[in-house]
Design brief:
With 133 residues, the protein is of the alpha+beta class. 26% of the residues lie in helices and 33% in strands.
């Protein structure tokens, strides 16, 4: 069973969000990395780029597939996790810690936050999605 930390928020495309003031840290969920398998390549956006909520900001390639990664909240990219470019497997090993992908300065946090799922709702979404396959 995938690990779903209770203190994070999630979106239905399997990204997680950790809110720290007006900054938002984003990565992919444990469920997503398990589904992808061994991650071999990660593409991340340029620092300074402004993302809209729902916009693809990067790509995660695994031995099985390539998947877009979507911005769960709109904002300006403040930092990317450069370590992932050399060690993409970190996403598999520690998706909620060292495997974070980007830090954003959120532009519409209050408005967009309501569209995110808490851990229980995300687990239910994963369960519903899994039962369709």
């Amino acid at each position: 069973m995938a690990n779903t930390p209770q203190d994070l928020l999630y979106n239905t495309s399997h990204e997680w969000v950790r809110i720290d003031g007006d900054q938002v840290i984003v990565g992919i969920s444990d469920y997503a990395q398990i589904s992808l398998g061994d991650v071999v390549f990660i593409e991340l956006p340029d620092v300074g780029r402004t993302l809209s909520k729902g916009e693809p900001f990067g790509v995660v390639e695994s031995v099985k597939a390539a998947s877009d990664v979507y911005a769960p909240i709109g904002g300006e990219v403040l930092e990317i996790n450069e370590a992932l470019l050399d060690s993409p497997e970190t996403v598999n090993e520690d998706p909620y810690g060292e495997g974070w992908m980007i830090k954003l300065r959120a532009s519409g946090l209050e408005a967009e936050r309501g569209d995110l799922l808490d851990a229980a709702a995300y687990e239910q979404h994963v369960e519903d999605e899994s039962s369709k396959h």
